[in-house]
Backbone:
């Protein structure tokens, strides 16, 4: 099969297309004919770091949409020809290839009316946003949420999900993306290049602060967010944890959360892994009814993935890049 591989930790430019043997599903797994795969920042990050579990040449690509074409032993609930989508294990070969294998307990059925390219845009960023808002922060109607980087993948999905929750939404972005995030549903937009985020947040909330923050940027940004939270507020950290030494204990009864989908695999927690499929089902239902936009901004080929990952690394991509295989 054709695959895009990495021979050693390195930059996206070190990826190249070659032929690999077809993977064989083991007991409890299926093999998926990959139709589309989503590109995510974690791809170029883990490419640079490497992983002790990898055997080279290694295939990246966590977000896979396609059709089951082979079943491992003891698989009875899925069938050859089923359309599926899943978020994969970064320690195992992924979807930058014509075929990939995955455990059955993490896959979600894909309705016939949803294009594979739309489905592949969902898992990493959509599940992250969903887990942050509803599994961690318990966002409720009428609450105010600050969502950083609203034009990005996680931020864009978080805005749309917060709209469905009937929350008031503040987001950050650059000047060129202001209209875009407003179209997604943001009530207030802060141009982080021109304005003080804290000053605007406190002005919008009458000095109280927000009930929830989804921080997709860094540890420094998450730590700065502590001062923007209202009493009993919470922050979900996606890209870096807060510096807890900067917190005043028992001052505002804050809650701090990590969001790390990959840890569901790394921890070996089957319940957490099965929750990936449950979140997938809930988000795919929203996509099926047209309640959310998959935000696919660009579709590339397998050979074009390295260049697309380089653009992602510049952190100015709007929405999602998806590759067709």
Residues:
């Amino acid at each position: 099969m054709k695959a895009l591989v990495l021979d050693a930790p390195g930059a996206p430019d070190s990826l190249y297309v070659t032929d690999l043997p077809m993977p064989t599903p083991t007991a409890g797994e299926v093999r998926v004919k990959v139709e589309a795969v989503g590109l995510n920042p974690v791809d170029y990050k883990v490419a640079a770091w490497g992983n002790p579990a990898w055997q080279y040449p290694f295939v990246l690509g966590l977000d896979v949409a396609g059709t089951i074409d082979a079943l491992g032993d003891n698989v009875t609930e899925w069938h050859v020809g089923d359309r599926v989508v899943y978020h994969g294990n970064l320690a195992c070969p992924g979807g930058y290839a014509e075929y990939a294998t995955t455990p059955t307990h993490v896959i979600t059925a894909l309705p016939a009316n949803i294009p594979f390219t739309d489905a592949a845009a969902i898992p990493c960023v959509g599940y992250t946003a969903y887990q942050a808002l509803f599994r961690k922060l318990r966002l409720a109607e009428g609450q105010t949420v600050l969502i950083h980087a609203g034009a990005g993948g996680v931020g864009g999905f978080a805005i749309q999900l917060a709209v469905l929750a009937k929350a008031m939404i503040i987001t950050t972005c650059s000047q060129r993306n202001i209209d875009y995030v407003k179209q997604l549903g943001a009530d207030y937009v802060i141009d982080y290049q021109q304005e003080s985020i804290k000053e605007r947040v406190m002005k919008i909330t009458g000095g109280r602060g927000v009930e929830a923050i989804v921080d997709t940027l860094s540890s420094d940004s998450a730590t700065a967010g502590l001062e923007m939270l209202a009493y009993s507020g919470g922050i979900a950290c996606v890209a870096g944890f807060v510096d807890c030494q900067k917190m005043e204990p028992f001052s505002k009864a804050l809650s701090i959360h990590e969001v790390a989908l990959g840890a569901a695999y790394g921890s070996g927690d089957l319940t957490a892994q099965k929750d990936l499929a449950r979140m997938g089902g809930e988000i795919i239902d929203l996509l099926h009814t047209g309640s959310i936009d998959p935000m696919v901004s660009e579709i590339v080929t397998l050979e074009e993935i390295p260049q697309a990952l380089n653009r992602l690394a510049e952190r100015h991509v709007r929405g999602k890049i998806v590759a067709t295989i």
Notes: The chain has a mean pLDDT of 96. DSSP finds ten helices and 16 strands in the chain. Residues 170 and 188 are 5 Å apart (CA to CA). The two ends are 11 Å apart (CA to CA).
